[in-house]
């Protein structure tokens, strides 16, 4: 009796094993991966949904160098630390804009379309976009020799920066040369999205380039906001001084003072 019972138990176990393996393999199939053939003269239309993030994946050995976006207030754009993958997510109200990416090998033109993700089926959301390349590029970058990462001598760098908020986003190094702000994050650490503060106290994602170990923001500002998931950090430029008009700057236009007996010009203050 015992031997017969053990034989049946062993048979049922061996028959069940392939079923479990088949279930595991089928779970790997993902309809959310989109493959796009690279076309240097084309524009790739990407549709993002609020509440969902997508990644842009490039060729082997390809690194992101410069990113420009038309309306940066509606999109969060973040490269990984190595500059090989771009994370893209619509934020706020759905809107459409364009984005340009320049890597060490190619140029990409994209149209970004944002839609609400509240009523979309997950199977209809793009999680990753992988570019395919039929031939190896000849190197489409315009410069024959790469410019120095930082042209301004170190003695002219402004290093007077402080922070408030989540420590996880704090860069290993941050400074500016009067024209651009340089962020260096720890090797292997997630790179947060970087925003500047708009005049109405809102946030606008910045245009940036990846040069060597630095994420170079193409502006100097009194403060930046770094976001990664729920972690928020504010970076303060303690030495920031608003630019003042030079001697050759245009003067304020004379204003007319109107009264009961007509109008007369009133000189603006110098």
Automatic annotation (TrEMBL):
InterPro entries: Conjugal_tfr_TrbG/VirB9/CagX (IPR010258), VirB9/CagX/TrbG_C (IPR033645), VirB9/CagX/TrbG_C_sf (IPR038161)
Superkingdom classification of source: Bacteria
UniProt keyword annotations, A-Z: Signal
Signal peptide: 1-21
Family to which this protein belongs: Belongs to the TrbG/VirB9 family.
The protein's name in its UniProt record: P-type conjugative transfer protein VirB9
